[in-house]
């Protein structure tokens, strides 16, 4: 089932997610609905807060990036078919060069900005069967994971922008929270006027 994606301005996007265990109600159904919601919105990542749940769950499928001819062959291969659920994730380390990349977010439609992030991360997480893994990722793959990880920490990519950029985006972000935007996927707007 495709769920509505929570728009910028909703307090759930600012909550630090809580860990869950294998007894979380309807967990398999939740994961299936999140995949369907993400694909329906043409996203490469989706975190539980974006569907209104303040829990430490996010999904990543970087396969769409594998067609980008500007990326190295090694990076395209790394991205192709990378599809994973991250449960109770913790980033253990962020290292390497800081680099900028143009990011967007399903909760903040039609806003894209360059965000600086570290190149390499090591993350400990559980998979859908609650088996623990620790893995190191780099490049664009690390960036997508960092972006989704930020969501379970109550952080949005717009928080990482300069003060000037934030001021320039203020009215656009306010319009998103009021539902004054056209999107081709289901959304829930925190400040939308009733009857819209």
Summarize the structure.
This protein is an alpha+beta fold.
Describe the secondary structure blueprint for this structure:
Elements: E1 5-6, H1 27-40, E2 45-47, E3 57-61, H2 73-79, E4 83-105, E5 108-126, E6 132-138, H3 139-152, H4 163-177, E7 187-188
Parallel strand pairs: 1-7
Antiparallel strand pairs: 2-3, 3-4, 4-5, 5-6
Properties at a glance:
196 residues; Peptide Deformylase; 7 strands; globular; 4 helices; alpha+beta; two-stranded parallel ribbon
Task: Describe what you observe in this structure.
- With 196 residues, the protein is of the alpha+beta class.
- It has one domain (5-184): Peptide Deformylase (Alpha-Beta Complex).
- It has 4 helices and 7 strands.
- It has helices at residues 27-40, 73-79, 139-152, 163-177, and strands at 5-6, 45-47, 57-61, 83-105, 108-126, 132-138, 187-188.
- A hairpin with a 5-residue loop joins strand 5 and strand 6 (132-138).
- 32% of the residues are buried.
Spatial ordering of strands, largest sheet: 2-3-4-5-6
Main sheet? 5 strands, antiparallel
Number of domains: 1
Total beta strand runs: 7
Query: How do the SSEs run, as a string of H and E?
Result: EHEEHEEEHHE
Rg measurement, Å = 16 Å
Shape: globular
Structural class, please?
alpha+beta
Number of helices: 4
End-to-end Cα distance, whole Å, is 23 Å
The level 1 CATH classification is Alpha Beta
CATH topology: Peptide Deformylase
| CATH architecture name | Alpha-Beta Complex
Proportion of beta-strand residues: 25-35%
Mean pLDDT, all residues? 95
